[in-house]
């Protein structure tokens, strides 16, 4: 197998492994390695009994999802049904579908809880556009499958991107009716095990309390407060409760902290936008409902804060978005364990609800790696030597041989110099008038004061090794060049005179294109198979 064929095979295997991880195995990581139900690692007091399946029998498993906010014509201001919008919608929906079926469902939750913002421009979509977005939502999260309907209970909470704030609800009541027809009431409560969940339409709590929009929400809160509390409660609010500016959100926060911003309509003074519920309304909700924990969304990033209430400190978990297109590089979901048996007298109320934040694959980083790998593939194929790495190996061997000869030559030269320095030559004249040099060993070595050769009367000092070393060095270097040239196959590397640079460039581009075709032929079908495997209904 030739060198460039080996390179093509190696790159093909790298691309195959990359696609398998990026499009499939990365979504199994939360279930296999990075996440688990919180009651599995809780203390023995919170985990007294275990059933045969390996999890505590006294907890109900709840998966919490926030802000899918599926993209539509209002998201990027692209024309409806345009190719660019369809492309973005497909890959955004595909990520959330993979996250749900490969990362969340393997945990086998018994309850799925959505914290609102299912759509991006929900209040501004026509009925047909809204129904189309609803179909996409059900397809992404399997809400139209028998598996979900028969084995999992699903609860919904409205968000500002679904029904708008108070001012929009007042002017477009049909938006609210459309939502309630599909998802049910905006304010309600339900039991999960021995824990009571209270869902509140947070978009209306800061509205004008004399209007019907806000009064319905506060009447519901008053009814909950007047009832005797028999179980620990969890408050569900799409909009987070009030927090001071620059409040620390904990280690899981990935983006800068967003401070309170609230805007009112200039005509009816109703709320048109807010980041958090006001401080007064937040305190009322905490004191009237008396929850042990608060779950919220809206912020698109993770945040954990503690609130003070009359009943003591209350922890609020703001979940990040499950979508990779909503400004969060680290999409997430939450696993919540709700106690299914009454608390003992020695148990704390917080032990009734255990939570764990789980992170999904960083889709943006996966696509960046695809781009980097593609660039590296192009450069590798273009710059790979025509004769492979054998040419480089021969050059390296010649260099090693040259260094070895130089070292041996230096040793021989040193030896000859030492022999010449420790002897002298005496001139003797023969009877026929000829001169002879007789070598005599000195009893004391001659000390040289300089390196300039000299001939003194009666003595002669030789300096021939210097000239010899120069000749040997030239011979070694020429030998190295000759050997390197002789290793090159003349069939593979024709003489430069017969081959122009343009032909070399064209040949490399043709070779690169041919290798790319081979790599694509092996990996594009795999990529497409993984796309459609996850997209079709299961």
What's the arrangement of secondary structure elements?
Layout: H1 3-23, H2 29-34, E1 59-65, H3 83-104, E2 111-114, H4 127-140, H5 146-151, E3 153-155, H6 160-163, H7 166-171, H8 173-183, E4 188-192, E5 195-200, H9 212-226, E6 233-237, E7 262-264, E8 271-274, H10 279-289, E9 293-296, E10 303-309, E11 312-318, E12 332-339, E13 353-359, H11 363-383, H12 390-421, E14 423-429, E15 435-441, E16 455-456, E17 459-460, H13 464-487, H14 501-535
Parallel strand pairs: 1-2, 2-3, 5-6, 6-9, 9-11
Antiparallel strand pairs: 1-12, 4-5, 7-8, 10-11, 12-13, 14-15, 16-17
Helix pairs in contact: 1-11, 1-14, 3-4, 11-14, 12-13
Summarize the structure.
The chain crosses the membrane at residues 366-385, 513-532. By secondary structure, the chain is an alpha/beta fold.
Describe this structure in words.
The protein is α/β, with parallel strands linked by helices and 538 residues long. It has 2 domains: 82 residues, no CATH class; 305 residues, 4-Layer Sandwich (Purple Acid Phosphatase, chain A, domain 2), CATH 3.60.21.10. The strands form 5 sheets. A 6-stranded mixed sheet has the order 4-5-6-9-11-10, with helices on one face. The chain has a 5-stranded mixed sheet with strand order 3-2-1-12-13. Helix 1 runs parallel beside helix 14, helix 11 packs antiparallel against helix 14 and helix 12 runs antiparallel to helix 13. The longest helix is centred in the last third of the chain and has 35 residues. The protein starts with a helix and ends with a helix. 31% of the residues are buried. Pfam families: Metallophos. It is a multi-pass membrane protein. Keywords: Membrane, Transmembrane, Transmembrane helix.
């Amino acid at each position: 197998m030739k060198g460039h064929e080996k390179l093509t095979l190696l790159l093909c295997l790298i691309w195959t492994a990359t696609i398998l991880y990026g499009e499939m195995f990365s979504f199994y990581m939360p279930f296999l390695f990075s996440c688990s139900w919180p009651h599995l690692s809780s203390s023995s007091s919170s985990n007294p009994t275990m059933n045969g399946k390996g999890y505590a029998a006294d907890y109900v498993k709840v998966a919490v999802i926030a802000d899918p906010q599926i993209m539509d014509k209002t998201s990027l201001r692209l024309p409806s049904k345009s190719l660019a919008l369809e492309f973005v919608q497909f890959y955004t929906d595909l990520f959330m579908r993979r996250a749900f079926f490969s990362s969340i469902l393997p945990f086998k939750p018994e309850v799925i809880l959505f914290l609102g913002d299912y759509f991006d421009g929900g209040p501004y979509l026509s009925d047909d556009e809204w129904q189309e977005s609803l179909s996409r939502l059900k397809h992404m999260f399997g809400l139209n499958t028998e598996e979900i309907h028969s084995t999992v209970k699903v609860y919904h909470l409205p968000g500002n991107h679904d029904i708008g704030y108070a001012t929009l609800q007042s002017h477009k009541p049909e938006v609210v009716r459309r939502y309630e027809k599909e998802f049910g009431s905006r304010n309600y409560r339900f039991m999960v095990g021995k824990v009571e969940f209270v869902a509140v339409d947070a978009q209306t709590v800061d509205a004008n309390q004399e209007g019907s929009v806000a009064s319905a929400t506060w009447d519901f809160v008053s009814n909950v407060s007047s009832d005797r509390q028999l179980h620990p409660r969890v408050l569900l609010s799409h909009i987070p409760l009030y927090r001071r500016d620059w409040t620390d959100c904990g280690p899981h926060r990935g983006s800068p902290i967003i401070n309170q911003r609230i805007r009112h309509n200039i005509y009816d003074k109703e709320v048109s936008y807010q980041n958090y519920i006001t401080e007064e309304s937040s305190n009322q909700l905490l004191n009237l409902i008396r929850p042990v924990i608060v779950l919220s969304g809206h912020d698109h990033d993770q945040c954990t804060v503690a609130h003070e209430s009359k009943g003591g400190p209350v922890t609020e978990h703001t979940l990040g978005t499950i979508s990779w297109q909503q400004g969060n590089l680290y999409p997430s979901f939450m696993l919540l364990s709700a106690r299914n048996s009454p608390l003992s007298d020695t148990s704390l109320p917080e032990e009734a609800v255990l939570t764990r934040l789980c992170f999904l694959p960083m889709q943006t980083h996966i696509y960046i790696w695809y781009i980097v790998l593609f660039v590296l593939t192009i450069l590798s194929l273009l710059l790979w030597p025509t004769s492979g790495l054998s040419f480089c190996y021969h050059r390296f061997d010649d260099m090693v041989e040259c260094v070895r000869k130089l070292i041996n030559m230096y040793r021989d030269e040193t030896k000859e110099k030492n022999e010449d320095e420790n002897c002298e030559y005496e001139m003797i004249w023969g009877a026929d008038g000829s001169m002879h040099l007789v070598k005599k060993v000195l009893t004391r070595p001659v000390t040289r004061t300089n390196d300039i050769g000299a001939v003194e009367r009666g003595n002669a000092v030789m300096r021939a090794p210097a000239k010899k070393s120069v000749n040997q060095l030239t011979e070694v270097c020429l030998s190295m060049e000759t050997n390197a040239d002789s290793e090159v196959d003349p069939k593979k590397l024709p003489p430069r005179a017969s081959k122009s640079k343009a032909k070399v460039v064209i040949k490399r581009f043709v070779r690169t294109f041919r290798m790319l075709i081979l790599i694509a032929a092996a990996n594009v079908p795999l990529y497409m198979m993984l796309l459609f495997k996850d997209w079709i209904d299961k």
